[in-house]
Design a protein that fits this description.
Helices cover 31% and strands 14% of the residues. It has twelve helices and twelve strands. Strands 1, 5, 6, 7, 8, 9, 10, 11 and 12 form a nine-stranded mixed sheet that branches. Strands 2-4-3 form a three-stranded antiparallel sheet, with no helix packed on it. Helix 9 packs parallel to helix 10. The longest helix has 25 residues. The N and C termini lie far apart (46 Å). The relative contact order is 0.21.
Length: 408
């Protein structure tokens, strides 16, 4: 059995394939002092998946367009409730918590994100987003795995990426060293049972299983908060997503020094968080309001925690989802699968503002869907080129335009 093909079994423990942890990298490599090819990963990426496909028109609302109210007489957000961003666009009222980040110009909102010939199947569309493929192209490896194949994460990092709140590898599929923490406490408890047992079994297959589990345990152990370690003071929001955010910040705290740089031989390049429940075919208003409140509060908690850890300036937060929703509401006070949606990019070095193109409600296609204005791979190119200094063309397989959202 190849270690790379061992993913499913290892996933039962809460982690993907991990190679044995090699020798520690030097502090000079990890901090980017005298930066070589590895120092760029001192810039942390946090991805937030809005699983199910978020309704963009009720997230960033074109409140000044009279067509909005006509398309959504039952579920539309009233104009006097919108959190105005400018004279035409505003946020859902449950996202008011984001205003300090917006006013500090640390929040970029990219409107009209999608791709050509969109697929409206959950499974296929998220596969397209995870692999950065064309809609008629099938790729095995996630776009982050291909990025790490182009330039390796420092060998002493605890993992390439940590996935919190999901068992799915997503953009880290196909070879990245990734730890999944669907239930962090349970994961560490169960993983600990495997420690040290590989040498005491006679079955070669089982011994291999336990060796891989031990690799996982070593990585997870490096990310676990320890007694006497820094404890975050920033308050965390309630609920399941608040727990996901707290776990993510604990991972950063465990791998970082008080100065906000990865410790020698420590760190992760990517954290991927998941917020579930956006497939709002029925009774959308209450359900989406709750989710958007969790997202806004979670992003602000990340900002507070990362600021406290001196990592806000070296972190980029990016949201994504498999698709948006249709412009016209359905008969069940919901929205069906659509094409484009706005997405958020946030961080201490992000140039805040509105990017992309406002929804053209007078330009819907024959299926009632919005045309895309920004290819989602332009967002990925922004991460690769502007954040990590990589060549996006070799990772994405084409020429895409990075967004000018990162302050130098």
């Amino acid at each position: 059995m190849l270690r790379r093909d061992f993913l499913t079994f290892a996933g039962g423990l809460g982690a993907a394939w991990l190679s044995p942890m090699p020798a520690y990298a030097t502090a000079r490599e990890l901090t980017g002092v005298g930066r070589g090819e590895r120092g760029h990963y001192g810039n942390l990426l946090i991805l937030i998946e809005l699983k199910g496909g978020n309704d963009g028109l009720n997230t960033v609302i074109p409140y000044a367009d009279p067509l909005y109210e006509r398309l959504r007489p039952a579920i539309g957000i009233k104009r006097d409730e919108v959190v105005q961003l400018d004279e035409r666009s505003g946020l859902h009222p449950e996202m008011r918590a984001l205003l300090p980040m917006w006013q500090a110009k640390e929040l970029a909102i990219v409107q009209g994100v999608g791709y050509p010939a969109p697929n409206l199947s959950h499974f296929r569309s998220i596969e397209i987003w995870n692999t950065a493929s064309r809609s008629d192209e099938y790729l095995r490896d996630g776009w982050l795995s291909r990025a790490f194949a182009q330039r390796a994460v420092p060998p002493g990092f605890d993992a390439d990426g940590v996935i919190v709140g999901s068992a799915e590898l997503g953009p880290l599929g196909g070879g990245a060293r990734a730890v999944t923490l669907t239930h962090p406490a349970q994961f560490l408890r169960e993983a600990g049972l495997a420690w040290g047992n590989a040498a005491r079994v006679s079955n070669p297959a089982l011994a291999h299983v336990l060796r891989v589990e031990n690799d996982i345990v070593r990585a997870a152990d490096g990310l676990r908060p320890r007694q006497g370690q820094y404890v975050l003071r920033a308050p965390m929001p309630p609920g399941a997503f608040g727990g996901v955010v707290k776990t993510a910040l604990q991972v950063v705290a465990a791998a970082d020094s008080p100065a906000g740089m990865p410790l020698p031989g420590r760190g992760v390049a990517v954290l991927r968080l998941t917020l579930n429940g956006f497939d709002t075919h029925q009774n959308q208003p209450g359900q989406q309001a709750n989710l958007l409140r969790q997202l806004a509060q979670g992003m602000m908690a990340l900002r507070a925690g990362l600021t406290e850890l001196n990592r806000w300036q070296s972190t980029m937060i990016v949201t994504y989802a498999e698709f948006g929703r249709r412009a016209r509401e359905n008969e069940s006070r919901g929205t069906d699968h659509g094409t484009v949606a706005p997405h958020f990019i946030a961080g201490g070095r992000i140039r805040g503002g509105l990017y992309g193109e406002m929804p053209r409600l007078n330009g819907l296609d024959g299926n009632g869907n919005l045309p895309f204005a920004v290819d989602f791979r332009d967002v990925y190119a922004t991460v690769l080129e502007r954040w990590w200094g990589l060549n996006p063309q070799s990772v994405l397989g084409g020429v895409f335009r990075p967004l000018d959202v990162v302050r130098v």
